[in-house]
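Continuing the series of single-chain predictions for the mutant panel. This is the parent chain; the variants come on the following pages.
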Amino acid sequence: MNERTISLTAQTTRRDVLLAGGVAVAAMALPKSSLAAAKAAPSQKEIQIMSFIKTEDGTEIFYKDWGPRDAQPIVFHHGWPLSADDWDAQMMFFLDKGFRVIAHDRRGHGRSTQTWSGNEMDTYAADVAALTDGLDLRDAVHVGHSTGGGEVAHYVARAKSGRVAKAVLIGAVPPIMVKSDKNPGGLPIEVFDGFRAALVANRSQFSWTCRPGRSTASTAQARRSARVSSTTGGVRA
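Parent structure:
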């Protein structure tokens, strides 16, 4: 496990330049004593610390870890295509109840490495194992939504003794999402093909249509549009 330090000065923007110019003009009007004090201050912006663990294949997994280290941990696993931020409200709630709360960005999501390979459940579970080992989490409650539920199921099935107390699956993908003769209640593969096509064609539009808080009718319309796009090669807004 490592904690990576990121200097924000490496991410200078046009706004930073304009602010710096404004500060320089204001400094010209200051007395010499104030200028001397200003020179003693660091010239860089405040350094931001971000926490990551590194997996065996070199992938960096971003995580949040809040609360007392001796409290029972609750680990939150987000759905696709979200990030650890999706759990902030729940994390704050359980933090207030005295728990230690952890959430991570799955590989290929959020602030974690944008991986080309390993985007399947076995590797997701291995990444969680690296996180729980690195933080030495014991008797943890793992909460997973959607894809995160599949991740939880795969991880719990192979977790080391003493690591897991409970698992909570919320609207999760297990046992399988795709419709088949053995799973008639699943979603047709055309829905997923449509999602892929819509993402490639217009990711912003897709994310806006499927954003949290949209009505069930709007989500259903998005799925119908996705099915159309998979058969026509285009995207319906």
